[in-house]
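Worked problem 6 (solution included).
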Amino acid sequence: MHSFDEYLFTQFEESLVRTGLAATTVVNYMADLRCFAPWLEDQPSPNGRLLGVQMEDIQCYEESVGGEGRAPSTINRRVHAIRKFYEFAMAEGWLAANPARDVRPLPLPELVPPGAHR
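Solution. The predicted structure is:
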């Protein structure tokens, strides 16, 4: 990861802590972002930098993570962390729009209570 990306992540992490999020939530958001950044760098897209991302890049990442066999809840959490990062980037004036804003969460499987039959 590039040093500028590390700077962005550090600023984001500090902002999460300031907002009073639980320490576990902060750790999970940062872990999710640290999965996204190297994936992004490996893409042939010229937008392979954090601040050059388009909605299509995030949708492609969502599909890629799904192809790894990850649960929809895990994929949704990762996309939510990415969305929060870009909300922060907008608030800081680094971006004019959040590229993750319109990326829709995946549907979660219906939970069946124990002992219930379909």
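Discussion: The domain at 3-91 is CATH 1.10.150 (DNA polymerase; domain 1).
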